[in-house]
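the two lines:
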Amino acid sequence: MEHASGDKRFKILEAHMKKHQYRHDALIEILHKAQELFGYLEDDLLLFVAYRLKLPASRVYGVATFYHFFTLKPQGKHTCVVCMGTACYVKGGDKVLAAVEEKAKIKAGETTPDNQVSLLTARCIGACGIAPAVVYDGTVTPRQTPETAVAQLKGWMSNGH
Amino acid sequence: MVIDDLNAIAEKERAARKKTVVRCCMAAGCMSSDAVGVKKNLEQAVKEAGLENEVEVRGVGCMKLCCEGPLVGVDPKGALFEKVTPEDARELIATLKGGKTKLKQGDLNAPFFKKQLSIVLANSGEIDPERIEAYIAAEGYQALHHVLREMTPKEVVESMVKSGLRGRGGAGFPTGIKWGTVAKTQSPQKYVICNADEGDPGAFMDRSVLESDPHSVLEGMAIAAYAVGANQGFIYCRAEYPLAIKRLQNAIKQAKALGLLGSGIFESPFNFSIDIRIGAGAFVCGEETALMASVEGKRGTPRPRPPFPAESGLFGCPTLLNNVETFANVPPIYRKGAEWFAAIGTEKSKGTKVFALAGKINNTGLIEVPMGTPLRQIVEEMGGGAPDGRKIKAVQTGGPSGGCIPSQHLDTPVDYESLGRLGSIMGSGGMIVMDDSTKMVDVARFFMEFCMDESCGKCIPCRAGTVQMLHLLEIILARKATARDLAKLEELCDMVRNTSLCGLGQTAPNPTMSTLRFFRNEYEELLQPDEFGPHGNGEAKKTELAKK
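prediction for all of em together
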């Protein structure tokens, strides 16, 4: 079955569901794939998954909202994930986060109005040996300070400030 | 695959070894400091120096001293280079021919390395985790063969009981008894699950084991499955560990290709396959019933026990659940014997424990020590104490479910019971060192916020209690609380601990209670005199007085 929009990504998602034989217990795997393809899980996408897996929409929505990893809002072009695990916290991860929040003028969990940067926090990325760590666009970067984090952000912001 | 094939692979791998091995740490910590670039340039430098026939550049797992990464070790010379950059590659290779160098070198005779006893981490930093041949050459899958061909499932369980291994996930339940219960339960379908949802902030032992030696976990799971009569396994790994997932997928693929997973392993009637399930960022999924709900594709909420997973677990079938480190302990136990394992450690806690040392300490990284090692030896001798000449104030173990052990109790031996007596837990092995600049009330607030955020919302004591406790901690920190608020906090801690449904809620008050026990003065210093009551809000009373 093809999605009405004709979007190719739905086809890929469909193939992934088929690989899992439309099993209900593969819901989380399928949502991972959906988020990887679309960047975030919008209502239409969740309904599509629910329909194809023959699950109530409430169940799919419930799972998507339960786990931190899934986002129902679009993300910015770049992501900055500040680790707030205990090791990073005692070594000043909170100061790094505060500096980034001030620079980007957004709070953790938000995206800048120009859709350039999404700021997130992580519970612990397991890189405690190199704390405090920040993940810029998927690259773990060791031993961050408020200054290095702000410098990294500067390059991303559209107005260059 | 028969034993001769296995030995042939090991023989071939050993014969192909070159005289000198340059080991490059390829675990997540060092990778983030461009270890990939280091390895690439080292290979290039070896080629330029014309040493291709003598020197092997090998990507290996975690080399333990994470704070000095990227690390490069040279065998058999026994050198350890620290903070290597890709530009250093040529100079490093030149030292193989006797060249002088100013590169930073670590001391392999330092207590950090010398006091370690590696069982789980024996292959970590030594073998290439992406090649099954390397694991086989290190006696890998020999234990599985021995178990499948020479032991009955009952003997396997008995042997595990004899070894005295206890669950490394935190609670320390005897592994052998758990295996025995699942083995005894009659059912046509059983499952084995590996808990790789290492959610405690500040713990990274399981990540390192999965990245450095994934096959040891697979072999351990297969042995467990044979003992309990399961034919399907799942590894539930958190999504924050992409490298560990990649290496696991690769390891499973290789093991399948060689017939070490799948049907008729070692030409016995035993079938076993393993699938990976990726978590989606929920701390509560480390709790066993919540984890199983998540594997079933549902919201990760716990359910009351009994029935225990050993009787009715995943999809209602008997399920054996152990964590990564527990499974990694299994192959050595069957390779070297239960007696050998039981001789290590203390009377009630056998074997070794891997700890992730982090926080305000000079040597951060992974250590594996025998159970019963005094905390002081770990943090002061091996960890090198606090940096900048500061003093160690407390050591936090067990993450958000554990407690803070103050410096006067540093001589406590590390085992399940001793830590329990101090109001902390062994936990999965995260050890965060705090120096005298750390404020303990702030630490308690940090963990309470964590628990509030991660509470799944199913039971009221945890859902509402964590919010209220956090609120009380916040007004204490804001100097707006009185002794009454502190009493209320203590009462609430007790209530949440005794009435919550699962481990998350039951242990959520631990960090607060343990800091209250040892650092009560820090709380009391922040309190306002009682006459500013009755709301416990001094500010409100003051404005009232000002109006008059």
